From TrEMBL:
Protein name: Phage associated protein
Compositionally skewed regions (Polar residues) per UniProt: 331-349
Region (Disordered): 308-379
Pfam families: P22_portal
The species this protein was found in: Neisseria gonorrhoeae
Bias type Basic residues, positions: 316-330, 353-379
Lineage, broadest ranks: Bacteria, Pseudomonadati, Pseudomonadota, Betaproteobacteria, Neisseriales
InterPro entries: P22_portal (IPR032427)
């Protein structure tokens, strides 16, 4: 027993190893070079049973409906091609086996026995049923509807015409389909993340411990950048040497961000953003323009965004002189806004005029002195 009261017990801990085998000969056996303890195979499971853990998917519950659909369809096809005959014995001038083999053909040639056909009560009738009954058709539709109901997919989600009468109902049905597929998509996303971790481990093994520069490409909005990995550096405090961004001694996790990149999704985003930008002021519209261009499918998209950013910076006016003159006029008309109780001359170190001047002359001289530092700052 440990000091804190914990109990120690023996347990089996899995360890992964990598071996190369040629026939019955083990060429190499070593610990795995990867940081994870997983097999290099990633299963994609839809669902798993609670007690046994056996994986299964939607197909398990669709098998009966699909078998019923296939059997009904095959029976209907056989019924459409079958031929029904009613005849008296000996009326045909051939054996029964030859008659059954020839009567099923479209171009059948049947020779009747003249003596037997002349007998009272002789009969030879051939009938074909080329019509599909309503009961058979209903069975087919029931099997198809069962398959759709098991999958949880609505016609609106598949882009078909359903029973929705408004756009709100269409959105609700699409959301219901997304909710029904939530568990399967979560398992799919988890398997994809595991695939990314295995691939990342292989990339780290290939990079090794050598210093390298990795270029992270940007997009239409974010600029690209470079990151140096495995850079030898020295700690200024302890003087010990270490590797900056050491990939061999770090545990990385892969996170997936499912962002649709189809043309229809970008067009939908562009339409929604365009409607929102219409009500904004012109200066805000210019700021959002690069983001809208990034959603467009146009050539030279990066250059268009760069030009729009440069033109936006070029159009920004220099308002220093205008603001300083407005501030001067405000202090002259409302002396109570100054910090010294209205003595704006002492605040700005402006000497009092000895000679008597008009209000207009004093206002102009004060504005010249107050706007002089603002002009220098604007230059």
């Amino acid at each position: 027993m440990a000091a804190n009261g914990a109990l120690l017990f023996a347990a089996s801990v899995p360890r992964m190893r990598r071996a190369f085998v040629v026939g019955d000969l083990v060429v190499r056996d070593e610990p795995t070079p990867y940081p994870h303890q997983k097999f290099p195979y990633v299963p994609f499971f839809g669902f798993r049973e609670d007690n046994t853990g056996i994986p299964y998917g939607y197909v398990r519950n669709m098998k009966y409906a699909q078998d019923n659909l296939n059997s009904t369809n095959s029976k209907l096809r056989w019924g459409l091609s079958a031929i029904r005959t009613v005849r008296t014995k000996g009326i045909v001038d051939m054996s029964d086996e030859q008659f059954r083999r020839n009567i099923a053909r479209v171009d059948a040639d049947i020779v009747l026995n003249k003596i037997e056909a002349a007998q009272p009560g002789a009969r030879f009738d051939v009938s074909r049923d080329f019509e599909l009954s309503a009961q058979h058709w209903q069975m087919l539709q029931d099997s198809r509807a069962t398959i759709r109901q098991i999958s949880g997919i609505t016609p609106s989600f598949m882009g078909n015409r359903g029973n929705a009468t408004s756009g709100r109902q269409e959105s609700i049905q699409v959301e219901q389909s997304n909710q029904s597929l939530g568990l399967v998509m979560d398992n799919f996303r988890q398997s994809r993340s595991l695939v990314g971790e295995l691939l990342l481990a292989m990339i780290i093994e290939d990079l090794g411990s050598d210093e390298q520069t990795v270029v992270i490409e940007g997009d239409a909005i974010t600029q690209g950048r470079t990151v140096v990995i495995n850079r030898p550096e020295t700690d200024p405090v302890t003087g010990k040497a270490y590797l900056s961004n050491d990939l061999q001694n770090i545990r990385l996790k892969v996170a997936l961000e499912d962002v649709p990149s189809t043309n229809s999704y970008r067009s939908q985003q562009l339409g929604a953003m365009s409607e929102a930008v219409k009500s904004l002021p012109p200066e805000y519209q210019a700021a959002v323009l690069p983001f809208m261009v990034s959603l467009m499918d146009i050539p030279f998209k990066d250059k268009v965004i760069e030009k729009s950013k440069k033109s936006e910076c070029r159009k920004r006016p220099n308002k220093s002189r205008r603001v300083s003159r407005r501030r001067c006029r405000t202090h002259w008309q409302n002396p109570a806004t100054t910090s010294n109780g209205g003595n704006w001359r002492s605040r700005n170190n402006v000497p009092r005029a000895k000679s008597r001047k008009s209000k207009r002359g004093r206002y102009k001289s004060a504005c010249r002195r107050l706007t002089r530092p603002c002009r220098r700052a604007g230059r």
